[in-house]
Design brief:
73 residues; 5 helices
């Protein structure tokens, strides 16, 4: 089987609300850890700002952004 390089299918499976809305902090942490690209990360930041605006989650998203930028180098 061929793997698609298009991430749009992955975005449909894990939209920001699925990544960031959980009563279990470990699931949120895992949702952030599996963000594959900057576009998805931006969507998650926008969602968090609009809905919960939790400082701790925004900090983790910032760390993930730094990690993604390092991977691009």
């Amino acid at each position: 089987m061929e793997k698609s390089t298009d991430n749009s299918g992955a975005d449909d499976e894990f939209p920001p609300e699925k990544r960031l809305e959980s009563p279990n902090h470990r699931l949120i942490k895992a949702g952030i850890a599996t963000i594959p690209d900057m576009e998805t990360l931006r969507e998650c930041v926008a969602y968090e700002n609009a809905h919960q605006n939790r400082t701790q989650i925004l900090r983790r998203l910032q760390w993930k952004a730094e990690e993604l930028r390092e991977d691009e180098k």
